[in-house]
TrEMBL record:
Protein name as catalogued: PTS mannose/fructose/sorbose transporter subunit IIB
Keyword Kinase appears in the UniProt entry: yes
Annotated source species: Caldanaerobacter subterraneus
Keywords: Cytoplasm, Kinase, Phosphotransferase system, Sugar transport, Transferase, Transport
Cellular component, GO annotation: cytoplasm
Gene3D superfamilies: Phosphotransferase system, sorbose subfamily IIB component
Domain of life: Bacteria
UniProt subcellular location: Cytoplasm
Length: 158
């Protein structure tokens, strides 16, 4: 399986200094966005590729494509950041055999049906249940907006 250095939920995906900080911290050289809607939107694909830090390869896949690519035994020196908007994508990846030991929650903004969980993180009842199932599968979940902040274990809030 390809080397994953960070798996992150952030509903803004690639944006400004936050992603630049994570790329630098993890020494990633590839960002893999997994999102059904974005993968089908050529304009958003172009925007996100332009938003990436210089020299970083960006690929955008739907879940099935991502699973196929991640399961490849890739012996390159790639260090991959996986970015998704929603926890259900992580749950699906786990169900399809992708190993995720740690999950970073960095941005889930307020929306109808969501309640504040911690700082800028808001989740719905369904998302809370998904996070619990992800925890039950053995994945550690932590909230951390940028690398120089302390990790906050999501178990305190679920």
């Amino acid at each position: 399986m390809m080397p994953i250095v960070l798996t992150r939920i952030d509903d803004r995906l690639i944006h400004g200094q936050v992603m630049t900080a994570w790329v630098k911290f993890t020494q990633a050289n590839r960002i893999m966005i997994i999102d059904e809607g974005v993968a089908k939107d050529p304009f958003m694909v172009k925007v996100l590729k332009m938003a990436a830090p210089p020299g970083i390869k960006v690929d955008i896949y739907d879940v099935e494509q991502a699973v196929e690519v991640l399961k490849e035994n890739d012996s390159t020196n790639e260090k991959i950041i996986i970015l998704v908007k929603h926890p259900v994508v992580i749950e699906t990846l786990l169900e399809k055999g992708i190993e995720i030991k740690k999950l970073n929650v960095g941005g889930m903004g307020a929306a109808p049906g969501r309640k504040a969980l911690y700082k800028n993180i808001s989740i719905s009842k369904e998302e809370r249940e998904i996070f619990q199932r992800i925890l039950d599968k053995g994945t550690d979940i932590f909230i951390q907006i940028v690398p120089d902040e302390k990790e906050v274990d999501i178990k305190k809030f679920i």
